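ok new one. same drill as before - structure tokens go in, u give me an amino acid for every spot. 179 of them this time. try not to just spam alanines like last time pls lmao
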């Protein structure tokens, strides 16, 4: 920028993007001072290097505003976990299923863990049936992202919020309430 540019000649670009041409560095600096702008090297590897006339402070501010806006639009992926056991009771299953649905409605992913203790691990099909039943019960709200698989003494499955429009889901819920 300005006096830190070491090249003898530079290609100068006007603030509106128009080419001014190849000029000696002293003339380019003089031009920048006359216009009240900074001479900023934008392509140092080019022959000759390309410099642009701009208000550098304003440029840096606009860049920070763009980055802030981009961060606001980002969404973080949050994974919530719901744990089950193979001998789960009907009511306990309903409570945990509703909890998983709440997480999916909040656009969070849900990791469903089936924990096996003792000899329960010899019958993984019982846990797999419960996880598949859960996937079927929450199908309106989420899709299976990772099918049930054993990891040591636990079987895990991951659900992601459904790609279906939230308005369609709300219409379905309203029709269920009316019945």
């Amino acid at each position: 920028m300005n006096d830190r540019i070491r090249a003898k000649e530079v290609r100068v670009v006007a603030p509106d993007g128009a080419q001014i041409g190849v000029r000696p560095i002293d003339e380019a600096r003089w031009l920048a001072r006359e216009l009240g702008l900074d001479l900023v090297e934008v392509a140092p590897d080019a022959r000759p290097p390309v410099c642009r006339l701009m208000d550098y402070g304003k440029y840096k501010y606009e860049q920070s505003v763009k980055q802030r806006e981009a961060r606001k639009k980002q969404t973080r992926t949050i994974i919530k976990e719901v744990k089950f056991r193979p001998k789960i009771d009907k009511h306990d299953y309903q409570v945990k299923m509703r909890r998983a649905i709440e997480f999916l409605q909040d656009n969070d992913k849900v990791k469903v863990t089936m924990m096996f203790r003792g000899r329960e691990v010899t019958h993984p099909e019982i846990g797999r049936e419960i996880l598949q039943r859960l996937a079927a019960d929450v199908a309106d709200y989420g899709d299976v992202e990772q099918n049930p698989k054993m990891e040591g003494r636990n079987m895990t499955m991951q659900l992601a919020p459904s790609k279906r429009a939230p308005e369609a889901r709300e219409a379905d819920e309203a029709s269920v309430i009316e019945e």
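The mean pLDDT is 86. and btw The longest helix spans residues 56-73.
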